[in-house]
Amino acid sequence: MTTAAVGSPRTYQVRTYGCQMNVHDSERISGLLEQAGYLRAAEADDNPDVVVFNTCAVRENADNRLYGNLGHLRPVKDRHPGMQIAVGGCLAQKDRGDIVRKAPWVDVVFGTHNIGSLPVLLERARHNAAAEVEILESLDVFPSTLPARRESTYAGWVSISVGCNNTCTFCIVPSLRGKEKDRRPGDVLSEVRALVDEGVLEVTLLGQNVNSYGVEFGDRYAFGKLLRACGDIDGLERVRFTSPHPKDFTDDVIAAMAETPNVCPSLHMPLQSGSDDVLKAMRRSYRSEKYLGIISKVRAAMPDAAITTDIIVGFPGETEADFQRTLDVVREARFSSAFTFQYSKRPGTPAATMDGQLPKQVVQERYERLIATVEEITWAENKRLVGETLEVLVAVGEGRKDERTGRMSGRARDGRLVHFATGAGALAERIRPGDIVHTTVTYAAPHHLNADGEPLSHRRTRAGDAAEAGRSPRTPGVLLGLPTIGAPAAAPAPTAGCAAH
Length: 501
Known about the structure:
Number of helices: 16
Strand order of the largest sheet: 20-21-18-17-16-19-22
Oligomer: single chain
Low-confidence stretches: 478-501
Number of strands: 23
Helix content: 25-40%
Structural class: alpha/beta
Shape: globular
Distance between the termini: 42 Å
């Protein structure tokens, strides 16, 4: 017996944790399942036929979070025979068969290298009434060749590489994602054009280290060339990328950013620490002087660029002087925002066994001082924009208070979050996610801007048309030999002559 009615499609939900790579992988998981005949369950549906967890292994509590959620699902599955649970992503790659040992009600475990196997594994687990665990050690097929159900009508992720060749001592990602594998530029640009043809206005180029792109095919200037090529795509209004590594950041990329009109004046470049001693212990092969030099060059070429970063507090051996150097670099860099983390010991990383592991209370106290410093700077930087007119790409789900305040939200070209009033009358009814508005900033907070006057202009877009119609962009893939669910599609009409061979 299955939870789906006889003859009806089986339903699925994907629950995603972690970084943008995982978010994009979940779009591929959804695309694979829908091409195999599954139907996406409503968010409020607490009884889908398949639940897929796409996991992250970067943070210390990732394991607890997964097993807690699996525990909550066990009684649901007991009440609904035929329900299947699948676990994929970085934690699956790390824990492998331990997941089924700890949670024997899980049906499928698949790794970061074989997302495309999921429909086969689900069908095999149903047929055999036994758990299927398949973890590949290297990439089976580049994920972007798989179909994807895109979550946004106006913005899309495009992977240019997977894996990482760096050996940062705190990071478990290279062991889970493998060595860097680059896509050919023509394949990347074809996917970008396919998204633009669907109405997408903005793409974000994704990689663990985007500016080392080209290492596999021997072109160290490949990333800058790729940015410039994106500038030639009609209808593509915004290009972003994440994340570069300071050691590989070159002047040609800065020039490409400044000289390509649709490349946004925003840069997310992880710092991790401002202390050269800590950077050395982290095996981050740059020092604070080089990092600040890159920022100076970016601002010389693009004075209004918004620069964001990642910072880790409490790395093993970090002294108060090391931490003060991080605060100094934060003050000098003037970040528009920062993702801040308390060091998290991850088994299997060199840092996990280093001497000098810091007490929790020391890390917490430094973390709170870092947050206060970052917010002081980001607030001051945002206040400089009060009175400025910004172009905002209208988004959905960015402003949790929008319904109560009567505002909508979106991102400026530099990536800042803007909550804007829609004005009175017909205009308020016409603005849709995916449209473009120009509006004037009236108030600044540390993490967002408000624009409380009526928009100065509103441009309807094809992305807005798609949002209004409830259409999500889909990019096709090549799916050979994978099982489908439900009734088979009708056979195509026979063709005559050579076309039939």
